[in-house]
């Protein structure tokens, strides 16, 4: 009798396991699979940072080198709509985000972010232009003098359903600025279409804060997307070494950088909805709301740079259900991703992107993704929703791995960004005191962040000890 009971229980357990497996397979099964036909529209351009469409179907895109280009009737027009003459080009800087005013059909306004130099420092500026006769004219400054840097300079532009302009800013390789409400860096800003301050911004009554701030504690947010129907705002942002994030953005909230990152938690700070280690380098994000790909309806799609793919996230009541990567390693680094008026997906590559991208011909491209009925083998990889990792002790080696290894390598062996430090091969001082100084103040012109105020002096000293001891090892 006992044996029969045990067998029945075992059978029931197996049935539950099998049914659970079937339900999981159904969520990611063939009915939600997507196949693409891919057309190459534009080649030999330099980092098409942002693609956008006019109401008549004309495509505009920014080239980081300082040009706004026009693609119409299957042709790239030779004359740019705009050439920004004071553009500052240094690794990740240049011409960045672009968006149309919600009433573009009436006022012809287009908003563009760019880097420029002011008092020998890189800055970020957002300006409004009028699009007339295929030219962008009459620039009007919305906001300027935001500190920029060759890394972590933002800058995505999106109008919300409230008709306010949302602007992302990076921490400019000075992580402490992300927590400073007197600084524009490491923030999402919200302004009226003329740059004035909306009365309902969360810090309008705070005398020690910039009134444009909507949220803070960001490292380098690259994507902003409002969910159709709900108006919920999502962002994508780069982490330090891994720790890339997808967040739900709520006004006035602190998203933690650099105090918390990866899956850290702290009272009063928001941990990410999704976190990615190793890094995927999330860039532009957007919800699919077209009709060409019904299987993608309502999915959040994210262009991935380091991941060289498109991240597809299915949500249920703003909670992630499943996620997968599409086109992995097929077209290299993907910078912009938008839905065209035809419901097709349009993506841009980011190959001319030192030091990660090598800029090999045909340099950068704009591609169109159309539905395919053919059983074309697509590079698709399902990935798990993040599981909470065990909190590790904040040892010097662990802090180095999370904050420094992306540039210096797991064992100080160097990366495409930096040379090896093994054998104490230092370029900026040859003793421990110099290491402490460099970690504290950064070498921002070389892309090394300044950690003063972001982590404690005691932790800086511990990391310096770790570097000093580990670097003694020969190559």
Automatic annotation (TrEMBL):
GO molecular function, one term: electron transfer activity
Sorted UniProt keywords: Heme, Iron, Metal-binding
Span of domain Cytochrome c: 389-471
Name of the protein: PQQ-dependent sugar dehydrogenase
UniProt xrefs under SUPFAM superfamilies: Cytochrome c, Soluble quinoprotein glucose dehydrogenase
Superkingdom of the source species: Bacteria
Organism in which the protein naturally occurs: Mucilaginibacter rubeus
